[in-house]
Amino acid sequence: MKPGAFEYRKATTVKDAVAWLHSDLNSKILAGGQSLVPVMNFRLAHPSLLVDINEIAALHQITFNADTVTLGALVRHQEMAESTEVRDRLPLLAVTARHIGHWAIRNRGTLGGSLAHADPASEWPAVMVALEAQIQVEGPDGARTIPASEFYLGYYTTELAADEIVTAVTISRTRHRLGFAEVARRPGDFALAGSIVEDFGDGQGSVTWFGVAGKPERVVLALPEEESARARSFQSALGKLSQLDDDRHRQQLAVTVAERAFQHSRLTGHEYLTFEGGQV
Amino acid sequence: MTEQAMRPQFMGARVKRVEDPRLLTGQARYVDDIEVPGMLEVAFVRSPHAAAKILSMDLEAARHAPGVRAVWTFEDCPVMLWQRDTYEVGQPVLAHDEVRYVGEPIVAIIAENRYLAEDAAELVTIRYETKTPVLDMVDAIAESPRRVHPEAQNVFFHKVYASKGFDEAFNAAEHHLSETFRTTRQTAVTLEPRCTAAMLDPASGRMTIYASTQSPHRVRSDMCELLGWDENQIRVIVPEVGGGFGMKANTYPEDIIVVSAAQKLRKPVKWVSDRTESLLSDVHARDDIHEAEVAFNSDGKIVGFRDHLMADGGAYPAYPFSGAVGETSLASRVLTGPYDIPYIATTIDCTYSNKTPLGAYRGVWGPIASFVQEGLIDRVARALGKDPADIRRINMIRPDQFPYRNSAGMVYDQGSYGESMEEALKLVDYKEFRRRQDTLRHEGRYVGIGISVFVEPTAMASSEAGSVGYESVFIRIEPTGKVTAAFGLGPTGQGHETTMAQLIADQVGVNFEDVVILHGDTDSAPFGGGTGGSRSGPIGGGAALVAGREMRARLVKLAAHLLEAGEEDIELGAGKAWVAGVPDRAMTIKELAEVAYTHVKRIPEGLPIGLELVARYQPKRAVSFSNGTHIAEVEVDVLSGLIRVLNYVVVNDCGRLINPMIVEGQIQGGVAQGIGSAFLESLRYDEHGQLVTTSLMDYLLPEATEVPRITTRHLVTPSEGEGGIKGMGEGSLIGAPAALVNAVSDALAPFGAMVRQLPVLPNDVLDWVNA
Amino acid sequence: MATKTPIRLTINHESYDVEVEPRWLLSDVIRHQLGLIGTHVGCEQGVCGACTILVDGKPERSCLVFAVQAEGADITTVEGLSTDPQHLTALQESFRDHHALQCGYCTSGMLLTATALLKKEPHPTEDAIREALSGNVCRCTGYQFIVDAILAVANGSKEVQE
Fold this sequence. Notes:
CATH topology of the largest domain in chain A: Uridine Diphospho-n-acetylenolpyruvylglucosamine Reductase, domain 3
Number of domains of chain A: 3
Largest sheet of chain A: 5 strands, antiparallel
Helix content of chain C: 25-40%
Largest sheet of chain C: 5 strands, mixed
Strand content of chain A: 25-35%
Largest interface: B-C, 59 and 61 residues
Shape of chain A: globular
Radius of gyration of chain A: 19 Å
Distance between the termini of chain A: 40 Å
Number of domains of chain C: 2
Structural class of chain C: alpha+beta
Strand order of the largest sheet of chain A: 4-5-10-6-7
Order of helices and strands of chain C: EEHEEEHHHH
Strand order of the largest sheet of chain C: 2-1-5-3-4
Order of helices and strands of chain A: EHEHEEEHHHHHHEEHEEEEEEEHH
Helix content of chain A: 25-40%
Oligomer: heterotrimer
Shape of chain C: elongated
Radius of gyration of chain C: 16 Å
CATH class of the largest domain in chain A: Alpha Beta
């Protein structure tokens, strides 16, 4: 369980990082490393060059604008969980962050790393799809913005080119009531199934799952008041996923977590992203 | 005065551990902390196939890789484990013509460090011709799809037993009920992985082996037997060991390679397993099927058990203890547990397969047998519509039946079987629980309670640690009056330096702080059996008591002569000897030691110079049974399939306690492992024989969030052995899985569920609920 | 052979100048180059928590960081608590009082995680303690005595402060 040899370079600008990434086809970005390093220890990945981006100051920022918030790629999960601003203004993100791994992992693991890794059982990609976030990436030809819904292609695959890096993600702060739920064997484990539900308040809403399909997809659906009708609605939304896992237990859990996410949105009793000062 | 001096001060007290300061400050040394200049490290190329013929190996690139000192195949170390006649097949320490399980070592790379060794391992090319793997034990017993070893039948251990009059009595019972119980492979997962280092002592030419083992002398004997060394040419040192749980009682192929490489390369050599290697190659455990049947009458009285016990032993019998044989043969003898069940018939089949060898994991047979036995009891209760506690009451061995010979011929010494259950039921407030359960069910919440009354055979002559029925202590009072005692035990966290010192301090009459316990060095310790099978407390502790007592007698003789008093008038305590009733006529033990070592002319005739002796203790009884009751309360989330343990109670009886704090630590740790066994831990093979759980992301261990607070009570039924001590290292893991899964069956009774497999996984719950 | 880079690590308020290969895990460098063997390695998969150290006061896995990345960080290992058996920290002492360790292999990681927790949250609830420790596996104790040891320190400091 020792990684193979590689060259190591520390970038202080996105430009440098991208240039180095471009210079070596077998290079990898080293952000938090909490997924990459285990894979290297297993010798399942053999990058010849690691570009360490941890010292690019700009990527650590959380910036609140009037209607949006921009989260830098290097924001650590634990920062998201603990930041007073995030907890007050974007409680869904703080709730989500607490479900990721364990404390020691959250202290190092990053938002951008998780988004780029595209593990279908991980939380951030689904949350960003649910919130219709815009993912900002930068490559040798400059920066571009990709809607989260178009960013994910399938199991561990994204729109990101080999020489591009995720720099930030921007979310609109105006949303309806949101809820989050996840089922995992133990706290901190990857989800058996997880869900984000948005209740538009007019009997309509959206559901986005993780852990049950190859990629997260936001499905708009009816959210009837009656529970069994709602379950049927979730069930039919599930059927619309393009890469649904065919495991019947997973599908059953998907309906369970969707209902729990819906209940969570009710429980919190406020519109997550538009109200300030709400406690989670 | 006499009474006060004789009353144990330290035995039974919650004495803080002497081991702790070095462990708490990061100063303790485990095998991987042994660093010697020039030390080489080993990495293994392991089989990626469950079954394949090796067609060719290309080692050239690896041999020329940077930092590589040697690349070994079987030809470089042609050693077979099991050269004895016990089994027909032995395991080559490096596979040569054929591989028989995923993870089997084939090539050893010995390099300047582990990074370089792993680099070279990647350069080894091996061509294979895959074969159909043997993966299902029921098929394997029928020699299907083929033999694992062409020269030997798949069934390598077969035994049939029936108590006299079984058929007649069994058939005459009013009711019969059968079930197939299945346990999935699990493994110990010590937090410190397996590791071994070896180096020649340049001065003497002797071999020093640093081993992370439970049994230092067994390692020495195995090395002598397998590598042809003499005992006095090998020194085994066991430094700090980060957990054992039975798994570190075996000698493994990697150990042989390390020692052999140190000898042939004349360099210090070390191998430290990584976690993936651990999960692939540490002995597995608990791969068993029980086709069980119970005969009972309408009043709830159980007449007999019938059981076909099958175990998948893996590709080879683990050396020198096959877990498959251990799990089944003892299970067959203690299957009736604490119950007076007059008839039993068992058939045992242990088979080879293309999986990792099966060895010991804490409790060995016990967690499986308790799961079967307590599962059958609960099924009888449900079939008759009676309370599970009542069925247990009806069948429990009564106090007046001790010593009790069970239907398989095992003799139980005194225990508190019924009492432990009643006490545990009181602690959980059983009746109140039933009321709460009813109320919650109406709210759509499913809580359940599970009872497990267990027996734990301890202090046996034979265990995974070996077949030494006694334990030895070399005890010495130093010229300064301090006490040193050396044991052949192999503690892996149990705190023997503390508990053995407690026992000796009381006997010798010194303060606990003045006793130093040595262990884990075959040069200083007398021959011993090591730690395993819950033997260290009762047998090792017994030896400590005998050694202390003999030393005390020596001191009394010396003091009587020097103080000019009769031996019967000499008192010993707090580091002094004095004449009863005349406290001024006293000598410190230091002063006595000065006479014994320096002013030797003052030693009376008949006493030797010095104060040292070796004592051995072998219990009269072949086995001493601890017992207890576990009760678990769980809640099952029927929508997610997740199970949460709400409350857990243990009433434990291990005879006289040496240190209650340490006993409680053992209990709590065993229950945590029981939660793993019941709900989390599972080594899974796919249809090609690939182990798919090769990381701790896949093999799930209980964490602080899964283990509830455990309420513990002690009952004390002393053994007939020294000190009244019984063993207790395994009982908690023997009792726990049965209590936990019975609680799940109870919670899901409205769905007709009855757990028949360990562990219970979320999908199982969903299947019951959907059915 | 891969080229080595000179780096300076700050561990337990001391500076160490050491040459490392980029691929060397921080856990290996701490143990084998610097001889701080109190940091244990249990899985190198980021799961078991035995190798937990504090980086700028926060628990991290030293098996999932390369030593070259650790320049400039303020690192604490178990040796940074106390190495003197006569003067243990309150938490180390409490671990001993409560029998919060058996084989000792997980203990360093447990102590460091708990130290960071108590600094961040001096009076944690039992649930908060269990959640904080959930990334540190102990195979021996069943966690109860570890939780008790931490609770005792938390309650003790409460008395002092109030």
